[in-house]
Every structure is written in C-alpha cells, then in structure tokens.
Amino acid sequence: MRPISDLLPDEEDIAFYRANGHWIAPMILSDGELEEAREHHARVIAGIYGTVRAPWNRNIEPGQPIDHIVKIDNSYWADTIMARLALNPVVGAMAARLAGAKAIRLWHDQLLYKPPKSGEAGHVGWHQDFGYWQCADPPELLTAWIALDDVNEENGCMKVVPGSHKWGLVPEGNFFDPNLKGLEEKITASTGRSFETASCLLPAGSLSFHHCMTLHGSGPNLSAGPRRSLVVHLMPDGTRYRAGTPGEGHMNVRLLSGKDGDPFAGPYFPVLFREGMRSNPWEVG
Ligand SMILES: O=C(O)CCC(=O)C(=O)O
To answer: Residue 285 above 60 pLDDT?
Structure first.
C-alpha cells in the first residue's frame, strides 16, 4: 500500500473534480481488508448484525430472493467492519481536499448489491443525490463509492455526467426509475444539454467520488458475479439544516431533531477527518 499522503488528491486531481464533478481515487484497501469487508457486507444483507442496532432502512428483507438492487441505509450501525469502512479517515481526508473543507462528517452510508444477471432490476436511474438532500445547505456534499468488486461495463459500473454538477437541480432525476433512456430524454429536454457519460471503472478496493449535484446512474449487471459496494455519503463540517424543503422527509432531519439553520453535527454525523486532529493516521507516531 502506498503512503497515505500519496493517496490524497493533488492540485490537478482537485481541479479535475471541481471541473467535472467526479474523481477516481487510488486503492485504499489491502486484500485482507477487502475480504473482511465482503464478508461483513454479506452478513448485513443476510440480517446478521454484529451490534445491537439494525440499519436505518433496507429495501429487501433478510432471506428474501435478491432479484433487484439491494440498498441498505446506515449499514454501519449494524456492523463494526462496515463502520470502519464508512468512517475511514483516509476517505475523509480525500473528501476534505476535494471539497476544500477543514473537516468532513458522515451524512449516511448506503450498502449496495447489484445481483448477477440483474437485468433492468439492477438499474439505478439518473439522478443527483442532492435531489434527495435538499434539507442540507450548502449543496457541497459528496459521495465516496467504494468498490468491493472490480467494477466495469459488464457488471454495471456507475456512470456520471461530467460537468452536470454545474447544471443546477434537475427535477426529473430518479434513483428508482429503471428506464435510463426515458430519463435521459426527459433530462436532455428539460436542460437542453447533451448527455455525455463517463464510466467509473474501479478495481476492487478503490473508490470514486462524485459531487452531490453530479448526475449519475448505472445499467444492468450482465456478469455472473455480484457488483458489491459501500457508498459513503459525506458532508463538509458546518453543513446546515434547511427546513421546509422537499428533503424534509430525509432520515437525517429526524436524526438531527433540530431547527432551521442548525449544523448537522453530533453523534449521528460522525467526523471522519478534521485538519490537525491527532488521530489522523499519517500524523500519529
Ligand atoms: O451504484 C450505483 O450505480 C449508483 C450509486 C449512487 O446513486 C450513489 O452512489 O449516489
């Protein structure tokens, strides 16, 4: 594994992220960590929780046949290995540099499993994450998408629309609409912009980042193996609650239990990285 300081985005990477709204990061997991993460990913899907707490939400009950994309929110509550991954300070440091923030907090995680030979049921419709997060201000949140398998065109890698983080909010976006072509047509018609995509091709153990306004989605898994990932949604420290938006139903509004203008802080929004914090791994011993 390279020294941690070598993994962080340099000035060119930061400029790329700010211009395009995404960035492919290097490998952060060793083979052993990857194996352990896969095993615990499977446990959470199977409903075998290593803590006293279930995830916030899951779209498929344990033991049910997995015939569509599995999405489990705040899996880190239920499993300490998932927690270690979701709260990885190196991921936090990468995010801090990309976002130009002094500290990064967890917004929430999302464990994803795209089943083998998924067909349309494995699709993720084109969307911007901020469409669901309008309760947060400013819209500078970002996502670390950590690959637990090699991710490629065959198994339905995530695709992003470079530059779309500068388009403003596109209301047609919908994670849950599998009709990618139909969504693309609606989005092109409403924005008047051409829809070019870039594929986030990742070796297992590496990750990509995308800005919360970047349009993204993915197609079917045509391969015989699963496409497994842990998606870690992050925010710059100081991100505040904006009351009365279409994002009012988001779980984090309830977890904050605050009033308009309060920062999303406290135990439900742990800090992954803070500049100068003693526990940043490359500053200790
Ligand atoms: O995994 C995918 O294909 C999409 C994931 C996603 O929507 C996200 O990371 O925000």
So the answer is: no
Q: For 37-52, what is each residue's pLDDT tens digit?
A: 999 999 999 999 999 9
Residue 41 lies in a domain: yes
Structure tokens at 210: 């995308």
Mutation test of ligand 1: which of 128, 216, 234, 250 has the most ligand atoms closer than 8 Å to its C-beta? 216
Q: 258 lies in which domain range?
A: 12-267
CATH at residue 201: 2.60.120.620
Residue 208, pLDDT score: 98
Between CA 141 and CA 254 the distance in angstroms is 18
Structural domain count of the chain: 1
Q: Say how many residues make up the chain.
A: 285
Q: Flag whether 272 is in a domain.
A: no
Q: Is residue 4 part of a domain?
A: no
Please, how many CA atoms are within 13 Å of residue 89, restricted to the half-sphere of its CB? 15
75 Cβ inside 6 Å of ligand 1: no
